[in-house]
Amino acid sequence: MPICGITERSGNVKEGFIFVARKGACDDGILHVREAIERGAVAIVIDRNGNVNLDGLREVTLIIVPDGRTFISHASAKLAGNPSESMTIIAVTGTNGKTTVTHFIGQLLLMLGEQAAVIGTTGLFMNGRKVHLDIPDMTTLPAEFLHPLLKECLEAGMKYIVMEASSLGLSTSRLDHCKIDVGVFLNIGVDHYEEHGSKEAYIAAKKRLTKMARSLVVNVDDWQCVKLVGNADRQVHFFGELTVAGNLIPDDLYPNFLPGKHNRLNALAAVTVMHVLNWDTFDTLPLCNKLVLPEGRLQCLREGGVVVFIDYAHTPDALQTVLASLTEESTGDLITVFGCGGNRDRGKRPQMGKVATTYSSKIFITSDNPRNEEPFAIIEEILAGISCEREKVVVEMDRRRAIEKAVRYAKAGDTVLIAGKGHEKTQQIGQELFAFSDYEVAQTALRNKNL
């Protein structure tokens, strides 16, 4: 019989769909079989022995497979016509920097006259323009959304796809049936350990990309990334702080204009990918002068001598990298506003408190996305990493007020870093999402500073 689509979300079922009744972390698809059939599902797929009560329902096909996730990945690619086979796919993984590097690669391709789409944390961009589609707000899309999206990109004339490959995306088979030409390894830091069960499981998830990509681009300055690709049976191209594809970078071609050493390294990662795609390194390096950081990545506001940066840094490594860069480049005091997300790796919270104290003259600790955790309990875990210099710390649970206080505190010549949420336009408290933009709050606070 004709099949129109596949999903593991019963609410997304339409006439002619396959419904995969997979057991998830919080829910079991078998509990939603009746709804799926009522919505028009013509087949039910399960990946375990179990009773599926179909009494009183119209006749459907019941299929048992070894692994529901693998089946969704395979079937989604097949139903979309395997679009990844007709494009060049670049997948970027790393604890920090994925969004910036994917956008840099997309921008370089566009400068060279190529049609490219970027898919990741900040959404979908085709040839540098954001495209608004009804897709989940996720770093790496589930296969049932990814392959139809790749098909749309192909039909829109995109030759290249540059996507973020999160550890969770890799470990849950979202990219299993997507042909990947270049896999990029930026760094391995502290994040998502609890979601994977351990650091080892987190690293094993990243390592899956070494088998999936035809060529690898690897940060030679990150020993864990180097170790990860040590036994790779495919070509590996290294980049580092001073090198691209093994070549030293002449001083006059180094991308010094970008704020932060980490962003200059991100640019060199992008140039190395271009080398793998057969562009001459010394032709693409000068193009780095035109690169623009994506929204929420050291996004800058200036008013009355005060400089405010909005950045997505939400791990100890990312926060340290950004603060170290701003320390080198700032002339006045460095003031930091940050919090930690709820229902995420708790081990990083005291580490981030310690990092912020090390580099900052003043710290405003606040809420990030507390989700289902008690906001003050999260703040107490951050404070546990600050053993001394508590006098430089201000606790303000309300994020809006924390940003306003930090901006008011800053004097001409000072730098304020608002870290953790970057481009996000919402704040999640409990199960509710509230409209909230660090950039807009900071912009208003700067305007009102001298009133």
Proportion of β residues?
A: 15-25%
| Average of pLDDT | 93
Helix content class: 25-40%
CATH homologous superfamily label of the largest domain: Mur-like, catalytic domain
CATH architectural name of the largest domain = 3-Layer(aba) Sandwich
Q: Runs with pLDDT <50, length 5+?
A: none
How many domains make up the 3D coordinates? 3
CATH class of the largest domain: Alpha Beta
Q: Cα distance, first to last residue?
A: 69 Å
Report the structural category. alpha/beta
How many helices in DSSP terms? 15
Shape: globular
Overall strand count? 22
CATH topology of the largest domain: UDP-N-acetylmuramoyl-L-alanine:D-glutamate ligase
Oligomer class: single chain
Radius of gyration: 23 Å
Describe it.
The chain is an alpha/beta fold and about 450 residues long. The protein folds into three domains: about 60 residues, MurE/MurF, N-terminal domain (Udp-n-acetylmuramoylalanyl-d-glutamate--2,6- Diaminopimelate Ligase, Chain: A, domain 1, 3-Layer(aba) Sandwich); about 210 residues, Mur-like, catalytic domain (UDP-N-acetylmuramoyl-L-alanine:D-glutamate ligase, 3-Layer(aba) Sandwich), CATH 3.40.1190.10; about 150 residues, Alpha-Beta Complex (Protein-Tyrosine Phosphatase, Chain A), CATH 3.90.190. Helices cover about 35% and strands about 20% of the residues. An eight-stranded mixed β-sheet has the order 8-7-6-9-5-10-11-12, with helices on both faces. A six-stranded mixed β-sheet has the order 15-16-20-17-18-19, with helices on both faces. Strand 13 and strand 14 form a beta hairpin. The longest helix is centred in the middle third of the chain and has 16 residues. It starts with a strand and ends with a helix.
